[in-house]
Amino acid sequence: MWKWDWLGMSSLKAEGTVKRAMNIMHNGLAILQQGRVLVTDRLHGHILSVLLDIPHVLLDNCHQKLSSFHNTWTRGLKNCRLADNAEDAARYVMELLDEYGDSLPPRLTAADIEEKL
């Protein structure tokens, strides 16, 4: 298990808004694709996991932003689970690991992401 937060990225210090944004995007994509299952409490983590076809667990918070988005737009995804607490998240991670085994989605760059229909 590996814990990471985008706020610690060195790419945040890049000069220029566009260069900084591109660095954050590329570094974020690389980090999201490191493991077999992602646990995230961030909406962008969920959206990128959907686009990259990464099995993931959404860990909702008291504002219920993730559960609202998930229930409205992505409820039918087979590679996503919604958890209310860390214990449920751990259980769902194990389910996804059992379901997907050692398979990893192919590594993609920003240019490779296609719209999901």
UniProtKB/TrEMBL annotation:
InterPro entries: Polysacch_pyruvyl_Trfase. Residues 28-63 form the Polysaccharide pyruvyl transferase domain. It comes from the Eukaryota. This is Polysaccharide pyruvyl transferase domain-containing protein. It comes from Littorina saxatilis.
